[in-house]
Design goal:
The protein is α+β, with helices and mostly antiparallel strands and 141 residues long. It contains five helices and five strands, in the order E-H-E-E-E-H-H-H-H-E. It starts with a strand and ends with a strand.
Length: 141
């Protein structure tokens, strides 16, 4: 039997986990394998975690975007499909700090920033759905 997980809550937890490193924070989230409840952990979170949160048979950590290859690899795939002439420039961006700001600036100037957001959103939703299926969850809205 699949345990239901709210898509919006899982997506928010995924964003929390994936965004924390850029802020120098340890942001984690876990999902109860029996209830689908998301538990948040990190700076500024007052939630008291279950004592057995580290038990992988009861809870599973919400994955970071890098576990799905949704970081710079996704940006490179998008550029290949939408701006192949900018391939080299984008690769240079990602060799230094501030890569995403430069990347998004390039997308905006090329008029494809909205297309990027759609592309990224579809990739994230697809990865989260697949992850849920692999771990006995079903996404609900």
């Amino acid at each position: 039997m699949s345990v239901p997980v709210d898509f919006n809550e899982l997506f928010a937890a995924y964003e929390w986990v994936s965004g924390g490193e850029g802020l120098g924070m340890d942001c984690r989230a876990y999902i109860s394998r029996s209830t689908g409840t998301v538990h948040w952990c990190g700076e500024g979170v007052d939630e008291e975690l279950p004592e057995d949160i580290e038990d992988g048979t009861l809870y599973i950590a919400v994955p970071h975007k890098n576990e799905f290859d949704l970081g710079r690899s996704l940006a490179f795939r998008f550029v290949e499909e939408h701006l192949p002439r900018s391939r080299e420039a984008v690769h240079k961006f990602f060799r230094k700090r501030g890569a995403y700001a430069k990347f998004k600036s390039l997308l905006a100037s090329a008029g494809v920033l909205d297309a990027w957001h759609v592309y990224e959103g579809k990739a994230v939703e697809s990865a989260l759905r697949e992850w849920c299926e692999e771990n006995g969850f079903v996404l609900v809205r």
